[in-house]
Structures are given as C-alpha cells and as structure tokens.
Amino acid sequence: MFRSSQHKYPPFKLFVEQLELKQYRNLQPLHLTFSDGLHFFIGPNAQGKTNLLESLYVVAIGKSHRTRSHKELIQFGQSMARIRLVVKRRGESDRIEVMISQKGKKISKNGIEQRRLSQYIGTLPTIMFAPEDLELVKGGPSVRRKFLNMEIGQVSPHYLSDLSTYNQLIQQRNHLLKQAPSSKPYQTELLDVLDDQIVPIAGRIWKKRIGFLKDLNRWSSDIHQQISQQKEVLHLHYQSSIPLQTDMKEEEIQELFRQEIKRVRKKEVSQRVTLLGPHRDDIRVKLGEIDVSTFGSQGQQRTAALSLKLAEIDYIYQKMGVYPILLLDDVLSELDDFRKNYLFRALQGRVQTFVTATGLDGIDSEWVRKSKVYRIKQGTITEQG
Ligand SMILES: Nc1ncnc2c1ncn2[C@@H]1O[C@H](COP(=O)(O)OP(=O)(O)OP(=O)(O)O)[C@@H](O)[C@H]1O
Ligand SMILES: [Mg+2]
C-alpha cells in the first residue's frame, strides 16, 4: 500500500486543521484544532461520536452518510446549524462553511458560495469506513453501484454530471416504455432519439468505471494479501449488463451498447423497462474462486470491505495528488490486533485519520502516544492532556 515511488506526485499533505460546530446534532458548540495525524474520539454509546465524524463527511461530500434530510442535522429545537472548517492543502488554507437551515444547506469556500456541488466536490477528499460498509460486500448490487459512483464522483466532476443526465434519460426511457402500449411506431422513434443521447454518456460512464475498477483491483488485492498475511487473494470483477472487455475503447463500448440495445428492444418493450446500462451493473468480490458476498465468513467480508476502502486511498492519491482524510467510525472493535496494527502502520504519516471507539482497550499504546485523544460525553468534547 502507498508505494509512493510509483505515483506521479510526491505525497502531498491534506488535512483538516480546524473544526467549528454550532448547533450540530447533539454536539455542544466547539472549536477544535487538529494535527495532520491520528485522532481518537472516545466515549460510551449515544454521546455524539458518529455525529462528529458525520459533520466532517457533510463538508466533504455535501450530504450526510446517514440521512438525506438536512433538517435532521440541526440540533433539536434550533433553526440552523453551522459547520466551519479550515483545510490545509499543499501548505495553503481553504475556509469552508456549511450553513444548514430549514430551507436547505449553503456551502461556501473562502467566502464564495458553491452553487454547483459538482464543482465543489474534491475540496476535501474523504473516505469513511463504518460498520454498515460491510454491506459493500454483503449487500445488493445497488450498494456497490453507489460506491462506484461516490468514489469516481469525488475525483471526477464530469462523471457526476454524466451520471445525473444519464439517470434522467433512463427515467424518461422507462416512463416511455411503461406508458405506451408496445409496437406503436412513435414509441420506437422516441426510444431511438433517447438512445442516441444515452449511448455516448453510458460509454463515458462505463469507461471510467472500468478504469476505476482496474486500479482498485490491483491495490485492494495487494492490501488484502498483506492484511490476510498472504492467505487470501482478493479479486474484483466488473459485472456488466453488456459483455464489456476491460481494454475496450470508449467508441467500442458505445458500438457494443448500440448493438445490445437493438438486440433487446423487443424484450424491453414487452417487459416495459430498460434492461441494459450502467444502472444495472454490479461488482463481484471474490476470494480465490469464492464469491465473498455469498460464501464469505463475516470476518472475510469485513476484511474484504476494509481492503476496498483502503485501496480507495491509493486511488484518490493517484488521481488528485493528495491523500484523502479517513473517518473510521466504530470499526476497530471488529478488527483483530494484527489488522488494527496493519491499519495504523499503513496510514501513519500520510493520512489524517479520525477514529471513534468506546474505549482505547486493545489499541497499541504506541499509536495512542502518537495521537490526539478526545473524550465525548453528552455532546461535549474535551481533549485529553
Ligand atoms: N438533531 C439532533 N439534535 C440533538 N440530538 C440529536 C440529533 N440527532 C441525533 N441526536 C442524538 O445524538 C446522540 C448521539 O448520536 P451518535 O450517533 O453520534 O452517538 P455515538 O456516540 O456515535 O454512539 P454509538 O457508540 O452508539 O454509535 C443520540 O443519542 C441522538 O439521539
Ligand atoms: Mg456511533
């Protein structure tokens, strides 16, 4: 992991230097100053640990990982919440503010309102790993598609805008297929018009996804080998609704898609739904010949999910020239000592990391010594001296 000599860029640092919260969830107003290293937030259940990580995630991604509703982020009984960050990147500072009101949220960067999320995303590249990420391996295809879209989206605003156009077009297409009785000539013409718009966008989305998966496969299998102490070989395979080959050019993908659409047109008209496209794809996660999603043990699934998440760090670094920050919510207790130590060793000196846990038991004192430790009690955070 992190073989920096093979990267295009030297390991530039990116980190959150300051965090200020006001009326955010159950947290008392706070202003914290962080280092570029490891941070532990320790406290019993229901004190505000996840809320704290969530506030960083909201700044990074523009929305919570737990809810679609901005209003839930505002402290009960209040009318607004505010998050402010100072992010250091290659020695420069960005001041970011997220204001959340009943009407919605407003993000500004260095005093300038960020109206288009696609342009703002990437300001604070972030990876979150939480117990629910087990779903990445265990859950249905939509979880893995969301993962693909989120991660590629963080490094490519074009991908995000393509995806949003694509989804709208597919909605229109499905609407058309549902509405009209089959075999009406106008329906065929309208479908052709939509397909002419969909094909190039789908081609770009597929090309990006295949490239992403190729990189991720390489890195995650390296990492997995190390975490599993050479016992297991992890392999990711992009499972597409059309027979894609990993080395296809964008035009070849588009051509293939055109042919496939023609081939299934009758079936789509009779089933009244779009059958092919990036929105129907999946990733298979395998250990050797075994499909981890179906046959993996809980521990194997968890380790595979961790390998995927850690591989993203390399991906972001390669694409953006900076390491993302890492939010680890409540995952340490699930990892054995070897995995815990591997994790901290791999992150050391490169990735600013925020870890929540109910206690420090089982964490090597070496790591605790090198980190900042905070206690959280009923929404109040205090740094441990
Ligand atoms: N908008 C809100 N205003 C005030 N309190 C809230 C709001 N939303 C959630 N809470 C409360 O915040 C508390 C802390 O939640 P959080 O998820 O951060 O706990 P946690 O420390 O991560 O606990 P656990 O160890 O169980 O994961 C919860 O008791 C919840 O009821
Ligand atoms: Mg929690």
What structural keywords apply?
385 residues; alpha/beta; Rossmann fold; Glutathione S-transferase Yfyf (Class Pi), Chain A, domain 2; six-stranded antiparallel β-sheet; six-stranded mixed β-sheet; 11 helices; 43% helix; 22% strand; globular; disordered N terminus
Explain the layout of strands and helices.
Blueprint lengths: L13 E9 L7 E4 L4 E5 L6 H13 L18 E10 L2 E10 L3 E5 L2 E2 L3 H4 L5 E4 L5 H4 L2 H15 L1 H23 L5 H43 L6 E6 L10 H22 L10 E6 L2 E2 H4 L2 H23 L4 E5 L7 H11 L5 E5 L7 H5 L2 E6 L2 E4 L2
Parallel strand pairs: 3-13, 3-14, 8-12, 12-13
Antiparallel strand pairs: 1-2, 1-4, 4-5, 5-6, 6-7, 9-10, 10-11, 14-15
The site of adenosine-5'-triphosphate (ATP) has 16 residues, from helix 1.
Q: Give the low-confidence spans.
A: 3-10
- Report the C-alpha radius of gyration, rounded: 22 Å
What share of residues is helical? Answer: 40-55%
Which molecules are bound in this entry?
Answer: adenosine-5'-triphosphate, magnesium ion
Mean pLDDT: 92
CATH architecture classification of the largest domain: 3-Layer(aba) Sandwich
Q: Calculate the terminal CA-CA distance, rounded to whole Å.
A: 33 Å
Structural class: alpha/beta
String of helices and strands = EEEHEEEEHEHHHHEHEEHHEHEHEE
Shape: globular
Number of helices: 11
CATH class of the largest domain: Alpha Beta
What is the domain total for the residues? 2
Strand order in the sheet with the most strands: 2-1-4-5-6-7
Question: What does the main sheet amount to?
Answer: 6 strands, antiparallel
CATH level-four homologous superfamily name of the largest domain: P-loop containing nucleotide triphosphate hydrolases
What is the fold named in CATH at topology level of the largest domain?
A: Rossmann fold
Kindly state the number of beta strands.
15
Which percent band covers the strand fraction? Answer: 15-25%
